[in-house]
Amino acid sequence: MEKYFVNLLLLLKRLTLILLLLTISRLVFYILNYSYFSDPVIWETIKLFIAGIQYDIATILAFNILFIILYLLPGSYHFHRKVHTIMKILFIVVNGIVLASNFADCEYFKFVNKRTTADILPYIFLSDDLVTLMPRFIRDFWYLFMIWFSTLFALWYFYPNQVKPEKSIQILWFKYIYQGVFSILLLGIFLVGFRGTRLKPLRIIDAARYTETKNIPLVLNTPFTILKTIGNSRLTEKSYFTEEEAITYFNPVKEYSSDKNFNPQNIVIFVLESFSKEYIGALSGNEGYTPFLDSLIHHALVFPNAFSNGKRSIEAMPSIMASLPTLMTSSYISSGYATNSINSLASLLKDKGYHTSFFHGGSNGTMGFDNFAHSAGIDEYYGMNEYGKGKDFDGNWGIFDEEFLQFYATKLNSFEEPFFSSVFTLSSHHPYTIPGKYKGKFRKGPLKILEAIGYGDFSLKRFFETASEMLWFENTLFVITADHTAQAIKPEYITNLGQFRVPIIFFHPADSSLRGKKNLITQQLDIMPSVFDYLNYNEPFISFGNSVFRPREDHFALTFQNGIYQYIENGYMLIYNQNEGPISLYHFETDPLLENNLLRTSQNTRIEMIKKLQSIIQVYNHSMIRNEMVVR
What's the Cα-to-Cα distance from 525 to each of 324, 325, 510, 528, 571, rounded to whole Å? Predict the structure, then answer.
């Protein structure tokens, strides 16, 4: 029995070793993303690290469950040399993967501002992108690979070994009973460690108990968020109000009646990869990196208070094309609701005789764009396969923007009018590759992405130069936005609000009424209803946004991540925990750094915003669960 307890002590030492390494990985995560987190006071940071230990313990127990059970089973096999070797290899491989996910998020977090969740798994295992880009990742983030290899070495070198592994050892039969009972008790203790001491199992959202929303990722760890979101994208019905009362606060059915005839203008939507508002001088008021967009904005209708509805490209597509937000853990495209019936710009305009298409210069299948395009009613998808010229491949993601946008202009010229089309650029995605012939041409700044932003802007200029010579150009409404933001330079773009600020621009070369700036709160969800309103489309449709051409409507912006909703309206931003209610309220127009929480003082504003947000959540969950996202 003494040897059995020695064996259990070794198990605890081994689990403590991985706990220490997970803490080190959290420290690396914090250092590499230091500018993002608020309250960089040492004691506050230490408290967040301490709070994160319970998530690390839960992660260790979950991913090492096989290792633990094998050690807890009664018997003498634990002391066999071969078993000892196999267990050591199992321990290092499993925990090496756990640590790798944490270190990978040290850099990926800079793009999405949240811990990675399970919806990334299909793109790791079902796409060639990771294999293609791995050499580039190793080159760009060599320091993370070095740190990771150091932790693997630590796992091997400091792994607590038995003093003298034996070939066999005899155990009396009645000691199996003692060992079995003790093992069951210890397994129960481990189970408590995994689920937490509360009535409900430890959840991602519980991290909000320890800190403000912005710091939640520092408490969590990536393997935990991945584990907790596997198969967890299902929504639950909400009943904050009766169905009749809910739609008095928010009604997703839009119908813009008009005495004017339908105006069949061509529609072209540009989704610019990572074009944060901060990078566009004409919008941010700072020194910009987009001279062409700056000039175009003076001839277009623009919205300085525009927001994306997510932080990932995969969330942007449904928001822009179908006015459908992602108000759940996984993206809509990778969720169990992806086969629901939805209306979109393409599906409804196709009924009006429009030709519909979508273009993306990346590998066909990337991010599920092609499948979503099909489900959204888009007839033709053009990716790298359709482009077909290997010499223009950027060596990473796909075709360089300049060449692909020239291809795009040429294809548009071949379509019968009216047409609806959208193109998603890619050269301003990491690793920010631009053609060698343009090295030194575009202005650089404090971030590596900025040179690629300049190249993307130049590519857009070249498109408009080519397209302006084509007959369809004068009959076309162009909408320009970004999929999401990227790294920030100034503090106001690092906040929970600033990290969603993107451009939304409406430009029509023959319509002088589309000029100027409007300070309405605007979001990607508003693009679809605004286009329909502009075209005098007078049939009902489902939309979670509103037309920018109707200033009297409620204009808001909405995001969801890490179990937290952000609702923006009338100069205020409400932060709302999906399980526990409102967390904070800020008047961002006078408090751009979100330092003064008004939750307890601005009660009327808080109550009204909560009612509107809850009605949106209730309607969204109900419609998604019951597959009622189209007007029947």
Answer: 7, 7, 25, 7, 18
Residue 576, C-beta contacts closer than 8 angstroms, at least 6 positions apart:
564, 565, 566, 567, 582, 583, 610, 613
Give tens-digit pLDDT for 450-508. 999 999 999 999 999 999 999 999 999 999 999 999 999 999 999 999 999 999 999 99
Beta bridge partners of 270: 423, 480
Q: What share of the chain is helix, strand, coil (3-state, %, to 5)?
A: 50, 10, 40
Report the greatest alpha carbon distance in the chain: 93
Cβ partners under 8 Å of residue 174, min gap 6: none
CB-neighbour burial class of residue 400 (10 A; exposed 0-12, middle 13-18, buried 19+): buried
* Cα Rg of the chain, angstroms: 27
Element of type H or E holding 297? helix 291-297
Peptide bond into 431 cis (omega under 30): yes
More confident residue, 576 or 86: 576
Rounded to whole angstroms, the Cα distance separating 321 from 378 reads: 10
pLDDT digits (tens, 9 = 90+) for 177-202: 555 555 555 555 555 555 555 545 67
Q: How far from chain centre, in Å, is Cα 483?
A: 10
For the chain, what are the domain ranges? Answer: 2-229, 268-550
What does the pLDDT read at residue 199? 45
Asked if 64 and 58 count as a contact pair (C-beta separation under 8 A), the reply is: no
How far apart CA 224 and CA 57 sit, in angstroms, is 10
What mean pLDDT do residues 553-568 have?
92
Number of Cβ atoms within 10 Å of the Cβ of 164: 7
Reported confidence tier of residue 125, pLDDT bands at 50, 70, 90: low
d(CA 88, CA 157): 11
Distances from the Cα of 373 to the Cαs of 1, 75, 356, 382, 526, in angstroms?
Answer: 64, 57, 10, 10, 19
Torsion of CA 236, 238, 244, 245, to 10 degrees: -160
- Strands of the sheet with 516-517, listed across from one edge: 380-382, 355-360, 419-424, 266-272, 476-482, 504-507, 301-302, 516-517
Predicted pLDDT at 172: 46
pTM, 2 dp: 0.84
Rounded CA-CA distance 604/601 in Å is 9
- Secondary element (H or E) of residue 477: strand 476-482
Superfamily of domain 268-550: Alkaline Phosphatase, subunit A (3.40.720.10)
**How many CB atoms lie under 10 A from the CB of residue 157?**
7
* Phi and psi based region of residue 307 (left: phi greater than 0; alpha: psi -120 to 50; beta: remaining): beta
Question: What is the tens place of the pLDDT at every residue in 304-348?
Answer: 999 999 999 989 999 999 999 999 988 888 777 887 889 999 999
115: left (phi over 0), alpha (psi -120 to 50) or beta: beta
Note whether 61 and 68 are within 8 A (CB): yes
- For residues 456 and 357, give the distance between their C-alpha atoms in angstroms, rounded to a whole number: 21
